[in-house]
Each structure stands twice: as C-alpha cells, then as structure tokens.
C-alpha cells in the first residue's frame, strides 16, 4: 500500500540526478568531512515541534514513529506543541530554529504550501524547510449522514446540484484547506456548490452533517474509520482506488479529474547538515517498516508515502505545482 | 452497567482513580496547564496499562483538573484554567475575608456534585443527549454565545457601562489573528506570532495575575498577607447551610451537563452561563462579586458536570466534542475500542468502568479536597514578599506552556499592564476575559450561519429554527433585564 516505492538514493546515483532533484547540497558535504561531529550525531535529545494539538494528525504521525526513532537514534525525542493559526505559528518557529539537527518538526501538505501563498505575514516560506521524509497520506471524502442520507449516491448528489447550481451546501473544516481546494476544483469542473467552512475542525464537520445543518460534508477519510455506521461516503479524492476503503468510488471514476491528499512528514530548518537529515531519515525509513507502525497507520485510515529527503523535495515540488493551479480558483 | 461499576471498584482501580484525581488537581491548579495537556501527558503511560486501568485513570484525571483550577482562582485570583474564570469572582473575595477554606471546600463539594450528576447523565442518557446536541447548529451556537455575553453588563458587581466597555474590549481582542472567514489577518501589526490570536490562557493569566501582583507590591508593608488564614470551626456547617436549598446545585448541574454535551463549547461557557443564572435567580443579587459561596458553587458545579458530559458525543457518536475528548479518542483506539453507538454493546464493561471512574472521581474530589483544603489555604499565609516572586514565576511558566511560545509570555505581560490600568479606572478585567472567551464562539457561529444563509436565506437560517428562536428570545430578555435592573438600581441609589 505504499504510494510510491521508496528509493534509497545513494551518493553516486544522486550526483547524476542532483541538478534535477533540487537537492544539490546532499553530496557536497558528504565529500568533505563534517566538522561539527556528524559521527556522533545525535548526541543529545532532539526537540520536535508539533504544530497542532496533542491527539491531532501530526501528533499521531509522530507518536507512532517516536519509540522506534528513539531506539535507533539512541536519544530521546521531545515533542513540543507550538500551536495556533492552523499550524503557521509552529512552522514559523521551526523555520527560525537553529539548523543544528537538534530541532525538527512535523509538516503537513498542503498547509505549508498554501499558507505562505494565501496569508500575509505567515512568518515562514515553504523553502525554509528541508524535508526529512513524507510519511503518511489520507485523501478526502465527500459524505452524507448514514442514518438519514440526503443522497443515496454521488450520482443523485450530482443530479441535485445540477438542478440547483450554487444552492447546495458542502461543509468543510476551514477556508483555504484541502477540503476547500477539492470543492473549488469540483466547482471549476462543473459541480457548483456552496462551501461552508465550520472553522472548528473535522469533527465539527461530521456533527454538522449528522445534525442536518448541511447535507454533504467534505473531510479527511480518517473521520470515516471508526464511524462507518454514522457517515456514508459518496466519493474519495485519491488518484486511484483507496486500498483501505476500496468500495468508495474515486472522483476521477465519477468523471471529475480532481484529486488531492493530506500528507504528513518531518522536516528540519533549511540549512541543516544533509548528513544529519540522512541519519534521521534512515531511522524513519526503518520505523516505517515496523509492524506496529503499519498497523497504526491502517487503524488511522492513512496510507504510506515513505519518501526520503531527495525524493520528498521532488514530491513537494510536484504538489506545489498542483496547488499553484488551484489557488487562482479560490479568488473566483 | 454494574459489571462496569464492579470493575471500577477493583482496589487497583480505586487507587488509580485517587492518583488520577490527585494528579488532575495539581495540573488544574497550575495556571497554564490545562486538562488537555494533562491528558496528553498521561496517555502514553496508559498504553502499558490494561485498557480499563488506563481509561479509569484518564477519566479521574479530567475530573480532578476541573476542581484543581478553582484553587488558585480562590486563593490568588488567578484561574487555573479558563473554565474557573468565574470561580474567582466570588472565591477571591472570600479569601480576602479570611474565608478561603470555606471557598475551597465549597468548590470541592460543588465539583463533586457536578461530576457525579454529569457522570450519571453520561451513564443513563447518553443517546438522548447526543441526539439533542446534534440539533445544535451554527445559528444555535451564535445565540448561545450571545446569551452568555449578556452577563457583561452585570459582571462582578461593576457598573453597567464599565462592564460593557470591558466586554467590548475583550471582544475586540478576540478578533486578533487570522479571521475565520476570509482568511485575512486582523490587528497583527506585522507580528506573525499574532496570527493565531491572543492565547486565551496566557491572556487570562496576564489580566488576572499581573494587576494582582502589582496591587500586592504597592502595599508598603511588605510583611502583609493577602489575608489571615483563619481555620473555621464550623466551616462544614456554614457550607451546608448554603447548600441546603439545592436549587443552585441542580440548576448548575443541568446547565453544565447540557452545555458540556455540545461539541466544542466546553466547560468555560458552562461556568459563565451558570454563574449568570445564579445571579439572576438569586433573591439578593448584591452579594455576588463580594464573596458569595453560592457564586463559587454555581461555577464549579457546572464546569465539573460539563467534564463527563463532554464525553457523550465521543462515546455515543464517535465524535470527540472537545480537545480532551479527542485525546481520549486516541487512547480508546489504541486499546482497540472503536467509539460510536456499538461501543456500549461491544465492550460494556470497560466503557462503563470509564464512566463510573468519573463518578467515583467526583467522590475522590470530595475526600481529597477536604484533606487538602486546609493545607492549600495556608499558601496565602505566606508574606507578600515571598508570594509575589513565586506567582510571577508561575505566570511566566504558565503563559509559555500553553502554546510553547515565548511571544505569549510577552503578550501576557502587556495584557497584565493593560489589566492594571483597567483596574485603576474601574473596568472589571473579568468582563474583558469574558469577551475574549465568548468572541470566537459568537463570531464563528455568525460566520457559518451567514455562509449557510447564502443558499437558504437569512430568514430561514435565523428565524425558522425552534432552538435558535428560543435562545434568541432568551438573549433579548436577558439583555433587557440587565438594562432594566441597572436602571432601577441606579435610580434607587440616586433617590
């Protein structure tokens, strides 16, 4: 269920590909001996900035890796929750931290791409981070209440929207998040709905649909796992059939070329020694092979990405290109 | 249900309940450390325990924290968490009068009653309450928030216009940061740290603690104390006489339970609404804000009833209604329990043990509070020159700990100075805090309602929903009542 095979790119390979991969620094410092003790890194505990509250997606993604990382790195990882402004406060803190390898943080796509584009004074740029690895992903679902469904199927929903363009509410957690992006892309593709941002997180979206305050909701598929009796998905926004819920049709199967997933990963402040990043990313790669980590991901309804630093740069760049094609749609 | 009780009564579990409550009291009592953070700290430890043991301890911790936050509110006028804000209104005046012990024991008993009633509601009527909570949509939240805002004019015995002014300033402060609608940055003045808004917990520490410290330091006689600790002999009888008519307890428990069930509103709102109603329905309204035990009781009953009640949506719908519930959701999932309607059928023992732990936690609060209160009250025995630096250090740790952000500590200082100035010109800081707490609830409710009105129309959204209409009527009546009673009071004093 890996989204892409993980490639453990080595230096020889990389030197050929470096100009393409936007990670030119990776080999340079490999050649020269590192002066600040790359050999004994890490020698003290590592601070991990988590930009959302305990119990959120970022926390979950980090916590399942934590015991394995601590074991293989031989130091403790100290999570620190720097929250607010949809994660932006914590990311500004991470961006401004000393790039000495002893401060890393969780990152989420598309948040770290959208915020610097759409909000003034975010305090960071996407380029302020060196990605250690992107670990997990989860697509979005369009859903209705299972007990009293407003629509039995996506087709029924689609027909209703076409009869009442712009007059059907879709509840999502916030403005300018992935849910909103999927909604504007659908809008652009001819499914004209009214986005209602609840401003209170994913669980409020589920309550809103279940209470009948808006007929359809859009949120991460994670909300569906453990709530199969309460909500009924109409469609999923993964590019291909989502393996953990293979019975849900994808938007592209339903005739809309729209897809998008939330991605969780780890990053260091820009300028962190690539050797140190490599050490952490190797530990992450090993942790992602552990049985309990895989099981936890499945329980949480997340799929695995598992890209290392170099591949992640490319991955993030691709995602950014996609996002740039969507942001103008928000304005309309 | 009773298998669960037996499981909770297992001696090892009883010990965990006591430990959980004691830990919770401590976390609640330290300003800046909230129940959410306590739960997050505790969850990893529960991973190595039996599912029932872990959940029992978490439940008890939550109940304990809801009482613990009253302690600093009473003793030094600094609420331990936002939900104890209104506890300080009457708790601190009691301390100043040397009746701190009475206030703390009253808070403790009220907390116990609240937890037991809220827990019982969770035990026997979860499905009904959950269905009712779902009927609460954005327009209803808007009016509930607006209803709570009507307390502004009468907060803590201040004058109508000063209370109103403080409340409006608080509302204005609550708009700092990224707007929930439109995503524009408001009043950030180029500081990215302000994007997330003013940290509520840091602001409360600043507004309540700093003016307090300055006021204490102004006193030339450095050996003075906040007040003399007077061990009261008949303290239980005094409190009993106050509680003999259980109207306040019942009203506060019902309000706390219902507001607690609503997703996302939580214990702070429950405490404020309950206090407001206690004042409104009292025969002698002038005693509030000057040390009325009833005031302390109304807040503590409600916020403790809200704690177990906030588990209703989690256990019966699988939707966590609060941050703490979200952490509990993680703990349940980790132990292989899937929250939702089937939970009570699949693993009744463990779930009921968890619910019973909250009820038993209430009893543990009762016992622990009684033992701890005389010890805690001695804190104000310390001479002011010793107390000031200790509290000052706590304000810094507390304001930093909430979001892990040094900027919040600076903000706490700035708001502290503002709070001091406001105090000097007679504007109650509690009104400012009220605006700050209620602002986001009201703004978000209105914002989402207006988004819904784009398809349904303003009239349908605001004037055709029965609960919304009732709340609207209550808000208007409550506002008129506040104005009327103030006009009457001022005309009486003049004439």
TrEMBL record, chain B:
Keywords assigned by UniProt, alphabetized: Membrane, Transmembrane, Transmembrane helix
Regions crossing the membrane: 12-33, 104-135, 141-161, 168-192, 198-217, 254-275, 317-337, 349-372, 384-402, 414-438, 458-484
Domain DUF112, first and last residues per copy: 14-432
Record has DNA damage as a keyword: no
Protein name: C4-dicarboxylate ABC transporter permease
């Amino acid at each position: 269920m890996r989204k892409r095979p993980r490639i453990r790119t080595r230096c020889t390979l990389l030197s050929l590909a470096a100009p393409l991969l936007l990670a030119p620094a990776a080999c340079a410092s490999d050649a020269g001996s590192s002066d600040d003790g790359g050999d004994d890194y890490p020698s003290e505990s590592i601070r991990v900035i988590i930009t959302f509250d305990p119990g959120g997606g970022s926390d979950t993604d980090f916590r399942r890796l934590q015991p394995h990382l601590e074991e293989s790195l031989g130091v403790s990882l100290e999570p620190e929750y720097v929250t607010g402004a949809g994660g932006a406060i914590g990311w500004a803190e991470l961006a401004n931290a000393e790039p000495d390898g002893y401060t890393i943080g969780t990152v989420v796509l598309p948040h770290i791409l959208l915020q610097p584009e759409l909000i003034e004074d975010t305090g960071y740029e996407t380029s302020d981070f060196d990605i250690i690895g992107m670990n997990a992903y989860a697509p979005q679902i369009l859903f209705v209440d299972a007990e009293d469904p407003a629509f039995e199927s996506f087709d029924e929903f689609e027909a209703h929207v076409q009869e009442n363009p712009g007059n059907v509410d879709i509840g999502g957690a916030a403005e300018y998040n992935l849910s909103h992006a999927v909604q504007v892309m659908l809008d652009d593709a001819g499914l004209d709905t009214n986005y209602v941002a609840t401003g209170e997180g994913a669980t409020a979206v589920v309550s809103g649909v279940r209470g009948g305050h808006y007929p359809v909701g859009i949120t991460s598929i994670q909300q569906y796992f453990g709530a199969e009796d309460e909500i009924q998905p109409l469609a999923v926004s993964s590019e291909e059939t989502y393996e953990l819920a293979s019975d849900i049709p994808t938007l592209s199967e339903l005739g809309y070329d729209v897809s998008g997933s939330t991605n969780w990963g780890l990053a260091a402040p820009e300028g962190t020694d690539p050797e140190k990043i490599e050490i952490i990313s190797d530990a992450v790669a090993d942790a992602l092979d552990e049985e309990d980590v895989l099981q936890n991901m499945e329980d949480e309804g997340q799929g695995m990405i598992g890209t290392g630093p170099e591949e992640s740069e490319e991955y993030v760049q691709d995602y950014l290109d996609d996002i740039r094609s969507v942001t103008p749609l928000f304005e309309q | 249900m009773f298998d669960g009780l037996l499981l909770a009564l297992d001696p090892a579990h009883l010990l965990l309940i006591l430990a959980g409550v004691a830990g919770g009291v401590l976390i609640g009592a330290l300003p800046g450390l909230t129940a959410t953070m306590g739960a997050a700290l505790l969850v990893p430890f529960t991973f190595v325990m039996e599912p029932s043991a872990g959940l029992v301890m978490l439940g008890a911790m939550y109940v304990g924290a809801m009482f613990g936050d009253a302690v600093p509110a009473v003793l030094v006028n600094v609420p331990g968490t936002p939900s104890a804000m209104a506890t300080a209104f009457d708790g601190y005046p009691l301390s100043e009068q040397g009746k701190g012990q009475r206030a703390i024991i009253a808070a403790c008993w009220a907390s116990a009653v609240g937890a037991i009633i809220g827990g019982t509601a969770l035990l026997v009527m979860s499905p009904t309450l959950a269905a009712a909570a779902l009927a609460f949509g954005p327009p209803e939240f808007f009016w509930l928030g607006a209803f709570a805002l009507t307390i502004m004019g009468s907060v803590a015995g201040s004058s109508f216009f000063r209370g109103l002014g403080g409340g409006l300033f608080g509302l204005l402060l609550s708009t700092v940061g990224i707007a929930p609608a439109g995503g524009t940055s408001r009043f950030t003045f180029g500081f990215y740290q302000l994007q997330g808004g003013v940290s509520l917990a840091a602001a409360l520490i600043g507004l309540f603690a700093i003016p307090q410290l300055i006021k204490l330091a102004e006193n030339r006689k450095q050996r003075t104390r906040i007040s003399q600790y007077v061990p009261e002999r008949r303290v239980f009888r005094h409190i009993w006489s106050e509680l003999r008519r259980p109207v306040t307890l019942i009203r506060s428990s019902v309000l706390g339970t219902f507001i607690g069930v609503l997703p996302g509103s939580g214990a702070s709102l429950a405490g404020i609404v309950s206090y407001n109603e206690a004042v409104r329905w009292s025969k002698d309204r002038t005693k509030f804000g000057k040390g009325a035990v009833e005031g302390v009781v109304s807040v503590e009953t409600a916020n403790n009833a809200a704690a177990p009640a906030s588990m209703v949506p989690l256990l019966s719908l699988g939707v966590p209604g609060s941050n703490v519930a979200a952490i509990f959701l993680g703990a349940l999932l980790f132990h292989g329990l899937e929250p939702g309607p089937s939970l009570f059928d699949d693993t009744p023992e463990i779930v009921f043990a968890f619910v019973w732990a909250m009820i038993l936690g209430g009893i543990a609060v009762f016992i622990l509070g009684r033992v701890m209160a005389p010890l805690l009250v001695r804190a104000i025995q310390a001479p002011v020159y010793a107390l000031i630096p200790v509290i000052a250090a706590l304000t810094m740790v507390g304001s930093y700990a909430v979001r892990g952000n040094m900027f919040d500590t600076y903000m706490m200082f700035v708001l502290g100075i503002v709070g001091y100035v406001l105090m000097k010109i007679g504007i109650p800081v509690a009104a400012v805090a009220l605006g700050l707490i209620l602002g986001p609830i009201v703004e978000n409710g209105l914002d989402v309602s207006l988004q819904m009105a784009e398809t349904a129309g303003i009239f349908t959204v605001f004037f055709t929903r029965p609960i919304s209409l009732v709340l609207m009527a209550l808000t208007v009546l409550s506002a008129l009542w506040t104005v009327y009673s103030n006009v009457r009071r001022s005309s009486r004093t003049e004439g």
